[in-house]
Every structure is written in structure tokens, then in C-alpha cells.
Amino acid sequence: MINFNLSEEQRALQNLARKFSMKEISPVALQYDKEPAFPEEIIKKAHAAGLMNLTCPREYGGQGMGLVNASLITEEMNAACVAISGMIGINSLACGPILIAGSDEQKRSFLIPLNQAGQTASFGLTEREAGSDAAGLKTLAKLEGDHYVLNGQKCFITNASYAALYTIFATIDPAKGTKGICGFIVPRESPGLSIGKVEDKMGHRALNVAEVNLENVIVPRENLLGKEAEGFKIAMETLDEGRVNIATCGVGLARAAFEAALDYAKKRVQFGKPIGTFQALNFMLADMAAAVDSARLLTWYAGSLADAGKRFTREAAQAKFYATDVAMRVTTDAVQIYGGYGYTKDYAVEKYMRDAKLQQIFEGTNQVNRIVAGGALMRG
Ligand SMILES: Cc1cc2nc3c(=O)[nH]c(=O)nc-3n(C[C@H](O)[C@H](O)[C@H](O)COP(=O)(O)OP(=O)(O)OC[C@H]3O[C@@H](n4cnc5c(N)ncnc54)[C@H](O)[C@@H]3O)c2cc1C
């Protein structure tokens, strides 16, 4: 027997996140899209409400939730604004490497102060010449006595301008490929670390994304995550969880677009009838509803495997590409249902459509996620 009902506790989490999002995020989402800024006050309120660091264990200052419960919250917040919610939720990606591979000492030293203060972090893997091919990264880590010296540049780093710490991936030898990569915890105040170009983006306007320059940055040996050369594995495991999270963001965004389109289709009258009664649009709405529901189920399934301690790499990749493709399709259809008005900035649906595009690109493009899922299928 499969139980699709949420428990009372889960419903309470969902309600808390829904109320918070409707009060604190929805009313300012369009304003932050027009004039991007660091949503500091909203982050502070989310932290106070227990809506940050959802999957980090309580002993390290987090909420100690599994991925399914976290996704109930994340869906609500992303239905309000993916960019503001992305800034609130960035620690789940940024601190993933520490949770996966960090020692108890590292978790206590870095996660507790970060989480207690409501600060945010960044995950630094991508480089200009190493995007999908992350194993080709060139940022160099040279061991000199009791510390490493980091030199290189990371690009497209979410929250880079505001992070209190960075999890950075660098190589001890580029010729070693995946076998040379190490993960490091790099505090913001490290001399030689600076922020470069801040990206001006099509959507997710309030999501800060910038370059991180590393020039002779000294990182104590005790900030190495796991053992030397385990970095690639740590990054990939982090992305497994991250992909369930991005799938949830896709579900939230698609749901928001669908609900807006349904509401509009009931109210907008042409030829003397609500436009939602025309079969062409009525079928479009039925397809949108089915797509949102199926994306959510696939996402919860991937999360439930993770929560049960089972392998979930394939299911996470499937949920990510499916749910974010759904978000792109549903937001595009929502603009279509709004007609000319959907193409203006007077309605949120044009923002939804711009926001959806990124979800198909980051945390592994949807082509790369199909490679991950397809590869797992062939390996049996
Ligand atoms: C707003 C934003 C935020 C981001 N945040 C972060 C972050 O916080 N931390 C971080 O480390 N990175 C981050 N990224 C980077 C993101 O993960 C990369 O952009 C993504 O992995 C793709 O890399 P790329 O942009 O270099 O594209 P490329 O790798 O150059 O890909 C270009 C195209 O080629 C396709 N392609 C590439 N290889 C293959 C293949 N083998 N088979 C089929 N198709 C292929 C891709 O799917 C894509 O369509 C962010 C990016 C953006 C835009």
C-alpha cells in the first residue's frame, strides 16, 4: 500500500512555509526582479522561522530534516519566488560537502557558527573552461608544509558576493583529472580571495551570481574535506542532493505558473465565455496539472530513497531534468494562456518563464542529467 497522505507534522511544515512565503516573499518578488538586491531581511526572517539549513542536522545548528520534508518547504517558497528562495536555500548546496565529508571538528567549527548567525555560504566548482566537464577544473591547490595554496578562478558562483564561507574544489594536478580534485573549506576573510564579475542575468534576478578569484589563498591543511583527491566524489554526492532540491524548485515554479494560468483562464472572457472553457486551453491546463503532479511525485520518490539511505543518483537526475523541463513547459504555456498580457511585466508569468530557463541549466544541465540517468541505466 502506498500512502500519499502527508502526516500532521508535514502539513504543519507546509503551512508554515506557505504562510511565510505569502507574507514575506510573494509581495516583493516582482520588485526584487526589477531591482535585484541582497534579500537580507527576508533571509533573517526565514532563519528565525526555522526555514533555513533544512537538511543540516540539529547538532550542527540546522533543522535536521530529510529531503522529503525539506521539499515540502522548498516547494512553497519557490512558488513565491525562485530567486529569493534560492538565496535562502543556498546553504543546502554550499554546506553539502562539509556534511558529506567533513569531520565532526570541521562541522562544529564551521557549520554551527554559520547556521547560528543565519549566514550564507557558496559552492565553488564551476570554472570558465570547466562547466559540464567539471573534472577539467584548473584551480590549483599546492601543499606547502601545513597549508595549501590555492590559485585560480571560479565562475557562476551563487551567493558569492555575500557568502561567509566557500566550499571550493581545486586540483593538486590537472593531469590527474577526477583523481586530483580536493574539496576545501575557505573562509570569506582569507587573504587573496576576492569577488570578480557579478552576472547580469535573464531571470533569477535576485540570485547573486559572481566570480570568485583565488590568488595565493592560504588554506590550512585541516580545512581539507575528506582525504586528498576525494573532492570529485564529494562534489558529485553533493549534487545528488542538490538535484532533488532543484527538482523541488521546478515543481514550485511550475505550480505557481499553473495556478496563475488557471485563475486567469477562469476570469478572462472572449467570445462571451471564459477562455478556459475553450478546449484548446482546457486541454493545455489539464496537461499542465498532470505535469506538475507527476514532477512532484518523481521528486518525492528521489527524496524518499535518500531519506531511506538508499542510492538515489539516477532518481535525483531524473527528477531534476523532468521537473525543470516541466517548469519550462508550464511557464511557457502560462504566458500563452495570458496572451499579450502574459508578455508584459504587469503579470508574474513572464518572470516565471525567464526564471524557469536557469533550472534546466544549473546543477548539471538537463543534457548532463540525462547522461547521469542514462549511464546508471546501462550499468544496471
Ligand atoms: C545562475 C547560475 C548559477 C550557478 N550557480 C553555481 C554555483 O553556485 N556553483 C557552481 O559551481 N556552479 C554554478 N553554476 C554553474 C552551472 O552549474 C554551469 O553553468 C553548468 O554546469 C553548465 O556549464 P557551462 O555553463 O560551462 O556550459 P557548458 O558545459 O559549456 O555546456 C554548454 C552546452 O553543451 C551541453 N553539453 C556539454 N557537455 C555535453 C555532453 N557531454 N553531452 C551533451 N551535451 C553537452 C550542455 O548541456 C549545454 O547545453 C551556475 C550557473 C548559473 C548560470
Q: How would you characterize this protein structure?
A:
This protein is an alpha+beta fold and 380 residues long. It folds into 3 domains: 8-117, Acyl-CoA dehydrogenase/oxidase, N-terminal domain (Butyryl-Coa Dehydrogenase, subunit A, domain 1, Orthogonal Bundle); 121-227, Butyryl-CoA Dehydrogenase, subunit A, domain 2 (Beta Barrel); 233-379, Butyryl-CoA Dehydrogenase, subunit A, domain 3 (Up-down Bundle). The chain is 52% helix and 16% strand. The protein contains 12 helices and 10 strands. The strands form 3 sheets. A 4-stranded mixed β-sheet has the order 1-4-5-8. The chain has a 4-stranded antiparallel β-sheet with strand order 2-3-7-6, with no helix packed on it. Helix 10 runs antiparallel to helix 11 (349-359). 50% of the residues are buried. The mean pLDDT is 98. Flavin-adenine dinucleotide is lined by residues 122-126, 131-132, 156-158, 201, 204, 209, 358, 361-365, 367-368, 371. Residues 122-126, 131-132, 156-158, 201, 204, 209, 358, 361-365, 367-368, 371 line the site of flavin-adenine dinucleotide.
Number of strands: 10
- Quaternary structure: single chain
Total helical segments? 12
Helix content: 40-55%
Low-confidence stretches: none
List the helices and strands and how they pair.
Blueprint: H1 8-25, H2 29-34, H3 40-48, H4 67-80, H5 82-94, H6 96-101, H7 104-117, E1 121-124, E2 140-144, E3 147-158, E4 165-171, E5 181-187, E6 193-198, E7 209-220, E8 224-225, H8 231-267, E9 269-270, E10 273-274, H9 279-307, H10 313-338, H11 349-359, H12 366-379
Parallel strand pairs: 1-4
Antiparallel strand pairs: 2-3, 3-7, 4-5, 5-8, 6-7, 9-10
Helix pairs in contact: 1-4, 4-5, 4-8, 8-9, 8-10, 8-11, 9-10, 10-11, 10-12
Bound molecules: flavin-adenine dinucleotide.
Flavin-adenine dinucleotide is lined by residues 122-126, 131-132, 156-158, 201, 204, 209, 358, 361-365, 367-368, 371.
